[in-house]
Amino acid sequence: MRPLFLYICCENSRNLKQYFEIIYWLTAVLLISLIFTSLTESYGQAIVLAVTLLPCVLFAKFFGSTISYKNRRRAILETIYLLLIVLIMEYLFIILICCWHLKFQLSEASSVLFNPLFIWFLLITFLAFEKILSVKLAVDKAQSKFIEFTSERRKVKIEVDTILYVESRDDVVFVVTANGEQYRTKMNISLWSNVLDIRFVRVHRAFIVNKSYVSGMSLGRLKLTSGAEIDVSKRYRNGVEEWFANAK
Fold first, then answer.
1. Per-residue pLDDT tens for 182-226?
2. What is the dotted CATH code of the domain comprising 146-247?
3. Start-end ranges of CATH 2.40.50.1020 in the chain?
4. Rounded Cα–Cα distance for residues 104 and 98 (Å)
5. Whole-prediction pTM
């Protein structure tokens, strides 16, 4: 797993996203602390326990986003490794807090904290709910003028409107612009699909196309203004054909 950095460089959408995440995880900590009140002697201790989940959440989000599903076996192994590391981190935090704060006492029911299924359930539930809310609120889909990402170990900033298409080739993704430039990145295409907004359409397992550069469609292939032609897979064909018909 390789850590990659990608964010939208539009001040309004970026601030909105930051505020959303802060508010969401503050609320999540309060809700989790309510669950933990039965496991500790005071609500303050429950808050401390809930806060220990935040580093695990950040770790899971950061490294989980870099897992490529091109190789399913490898993706499954990396996911298992990630879950185990997150679990060990949480156990260490709980043990360190109890050792550091001698008055920090857990109740008899606290054995549930060391149940891996309980920890994983909390993390996965709140991470999944955050993702659902961010999509519903269009936090990640706000139209932005620029996008910044890592290519060949350097940061690249380009205008979103100049992107012609995004193509996945095995474990590498290429961002191709209208002027013919190509940027190589390890950011998998599923994450690009989440980051790019309604100006783009997923047409194939390996392609995301900028609608503005589509000049026509024939026999299940999109024709681009650059002269390139891209196959539309059966999985996405109905949605693409419906969009193209409405765009005429």
1. 999 988 888 888 888 888 999 999 999 999 999 988 888 899 998
2. 2.40.50.1020
3. 146-247
4. 5
5. 0.51
